[in-house]
Design brief:
The protein is mainly beta. The chain is built from no helices and 23 strands. A hairpin with a 3-residue loop joins β18 and β19.
Length: about 250
Amino acid sequence: LVRSFVAALGSPGVVAAAPDGRRLAFSADNYTIHIWDIEKNTFLGELPGHADALVALAFSADGKFMASASRDQTAILWDVDSGQMLRDLSKPANEPLGLAFSPDGSRLAVADSAGGIRYWELSSLRDIAYVSTRDQPVTALAYSPDGKWFAVGGEQGFLNLWDVSRKRPDRALPDAPDSVHAVVFSPDSKWLLVAGSDASLQLWDVESATLTQRYEGANHQTYVLALTPDGKRIAAAGIDSKLTLWK
């Protein structure tokens, strides 16, 4: 253990780290977001704005923006430096379940309980599209680091790869977990890691859309998934209160 960050009220909930490693954000029991300077181990501020538990947090690639989603059916875009609420992203009134910034920082995708994804243009804070994927909640989504692919997953084994340029048709990935809770691309964008209700993690080849490997030892409900920046180690956690590492 290198360092501990203590919530001012209750225990931390959802957690996100800025890509540059300078800041850490997590939710508290009073539905606020706490921001910490990781290197200095100093508390930078508290962001109020939600009225129920948070379900997702995400930083933009440059660390300037942060998005939060809550069970109060709201999603909010924040300016990290000032702590200012830039935009309430909640429309229509479906519960937001997942957040993903595009690698170039131009867009934010918000997935919801109605099975749709709403896209926002960050330069204008404008709602630019709403895509209905299916009638089941979308619980996991991610852009590939090269910006070419978009992965989306949800209930009833739903797992798809989308070509952002739309030059290739969407790809449904079979044999996904019954519930997909987390998806993350490797740093080189060649691989997609998937976690959910299975007792293993899945590794997919993005270009061929084939399942190439399973990592055994995960619990039956894995909700959190992360890769190290060099792509050599995997970290996963779920309902068994354990953090598991793979090499």
